[in-house]
Amino acid sequence: MIDRIALFGRRGLNLVASLGRAGQFLFGVLAGVPRPATGFPLLVKQLYAVGVLSLAIVVVSGLFIGMVLGLQGYTILSDYGSESAVGQMIALTLVRELGPVVTALLFAGRAGSALTAEIGLMKATEQLSSMEMMGVDPLRRVIAPRLWAGFLAMPMLAMIFSVVGIWGGMLIGVEWLGVFEGSFWGNMQSSVEFVDDVLNGLIKSVVFGFVCAWIAVYQGYDCVPTSAGISSATTKTVVYSSLAVLGLDFVLTAVMFGDF
Amino acid sequence: METSAYISLRNVVFSRSGRRIFDGVTLDVPRGKITAIMGPSGTGKTTLLRLIGGQLRPESGEIVVAGQNVPALRRKALYRLRETMGMLFQSGALFTDLSVYENVAFPLRVHTKLPEDMIRDIVLMKLEAVGLRGARELMPSELSGGMTRRVALARSIALDPELIMYDEPFAGQDPIAMGVLVKLIRDLNSSMGLTSVLVSHDVPESLSICHHACILADGKVIGQGTPEELRAHPSEQVQQFLGGKPDGPVPFHYPAGAVAGDFGVAGGGV
Amino acid sequence: MAQRSLEVIVGLFMLAGLGALLFLALQVSGLSPKSAEQTYTLYADFNDTGGLAPRGKVSMAGVKIGSIESISLNKDTFQARVTMSINGDIDNIPADSAAVIRTSGLLGEQYIDISIGGDMDSLAAGDTFYATQSAMNIERLISNFASGK
To answer: Is B168 helix (H, G, I), strand (E, B) or coil?
Structure first.
């Protein structure tokens, strides 16, 4: 029994210690002033790896989720004779919740795991160490561009996801099920508020992007430099990112849309 | 001795995960010479290089490199000092996403503001020195183990360092590649006036090129001197290592509890 | 891949993201570019605001002209005081107009409709509507109907 409690305490201490290390790590990454001449090409390269390469999965998922929302929404709303509200329902769901959250989950799986594996492998093959010995700080050279790229790419992807989803919903609702196009857009426009819905969704995706990128690069940098260590770090990235995104989503939703 | 030492360690103590790796190591690396640091695997030879490079900090003791006490240096000064060091990692540690050419150009691009054509000249010169000028367009994944090490060597001398550290340069190399590396290390040392530190457990190769050697065991220096002095060293431990005898003062067994305890013959252990 | 084409692709990606944001702003939330214009405040006192809520719309002839800022209780009159912000370019609401709480559809959300009066003077910023009509309470309506009053 005492052993169990001690184990619990040790886990707690480990958790606090690793949070502390992650914070210290973040400080080390962000402390340096980036030099535009060397930093920009590195950032572009990472934006390509993290953003552009995630585009396909984000667009395809967005399209399907929008189409499903169109179908489900139409079925439910037509019971009340208000199927013209389907546009409003799709837009609000996507812009407020599904856009940022699903994109962040896809991002963690597609880009986050790749970041962790890449950095972990660089650590295992002593590339980070050798960079350090060359007088180059790997935190700034390797980690910082990846963190910033995640931070910048995620909101872009979330916006694209929402737009593609709304378009997919329109395909189903308007083209297939015959909702009048004017009321589809009209209902949407009268109920979606730019500041309350679109901007809040954007803020969510910025927060998620930062958290996912942070977790991914930290797990890579902190991993045990063996093949087992890298694979467990990659798994941790996906699990922790997903949990962090869902948890933070609740907190942010409560702050943004809750009435208190 | 004191004035000609490029690196000197004084009573360095270091432990990792509860195990004491160095217990008061004191040694000197003379300037402009090749110094071999030898010892059985697991005695922390690589750790020693990391201590010299400032990647790890000792619990106590001094590590003076080129007149500066490394553990006490601030970040900026440490990074500046590292620009004068080259290190050849055991795996080569080439950047896998860059070509051979870009790998060698990397330190130049980061630390100098040289124009592109000058960088090109320097890179090709360094690659020529290791005999791989023709391989400049290859990616690291297309190189053999020996070639990887030679490219890494070209990269570590790109900035014309004062000190170069080799971490197990001969491990896992075929005899030809090993011969090439031995020749390269010797040539670089004599032509560029480098101070070289060589960490290895390959006794014949190391002794054939070094001017000065230290043998580490059990966290201590058990013998140092020129290769001739070491061969004539009175210590049994030194002779065991140089001669490659399986048992002797360096124990065959990893420290363990009494045999009886593990096999349960001492009775009563339920 | 050459640095140049990498930059072009990443540039296109960023443009696509910003374009998506623009689409969400203009087409989805119906934000018109001049929406950051000035608004002015009007008040109205109601006996019963029913399910009226902040951020609800204020409309005239079915067209949205503003939104509800806040709803508070006036302790002296025991009436609800609704603060509305009205678009600045609707500056000619006749002074004797009435603020009416209506429901969109049978069960939809409640909003304030302004039924236009005939006065030559207009309401200015900070004015209060003279005439109001409170929320239609279906329960009360039914009980009134049933008791034949």
So the answer is: coil
Domain boundaries, chain B: 5-94+162-178+191-263
Nearest chain A residue to B80, by CA: A135
Chain A residue with minimal CA distance to C23?
A163
Query: Where in chain C are the domains?
Result: 1-33, 39-135
How far, CA to CA in Å, does A51 sit from each of A148, A158, B124, C1? Answer: 11, 11, 36, 16
For chains A and B, having 3+ Cβ pairs within 8 Å is answered yes
Within a domain: A260: no
Contact check, Cβ <8 Å, A134/B91: no
Class in CATH terms, B5-94+162-178+191-263: alpha beta
* Tally of domains in chain A: 1
List the chains bordering chain C where 3 or more Cβ pairs fall under 8 Å.
A
**Cα–Cα distance between C139 and C147 in angstroms, integer?**
12
Q: If you count residue pairs, one on A and one on C, with CB atoms under 8 Å apart, how many are there?
A: 77
Q: Give the residue from A54, A189, A196 with the most C CB atoms within 10 Å of its CB, the best one to mutate.
A: A189
Cβ A194–C31 below 8 Å, yes or no?
yes
Please count the other Cβ atoms lying within 10 Å of the Cβ belonging to residue C148: 5
CA–CA separation, B204 vs C121, rounded Å?
108
Contact residues, chain C, for A162 at CB < 8 Å: 20, 24, 28
Tens of pLDDT, residues A39-84: 788 889 899 999 999 999 999 999 999 999 999 999 888 888 777 7
Contact between A241 and A215 under an 8 Å Cβ cutoff? The reply is: yes
Domain containing residue A139: 42-255
Contact A135 B55 (CB under 8 A): no
Q: What is the pTM of this model?
A: 0.77
* Of residues A95, A160, A189, nearest to C17 (C-beta): A160
Strand partners, C44: C82
The ipTM is 0.79
Q: Which residues contact B174 (CB under 8 A, 6 or more apart)?
A: B146
Residue B212: strand pairing partners: B35
Q: What is the pLDDT of residues A31-51, one digit of tens each?
A: 766 666 667 888 898 999 999
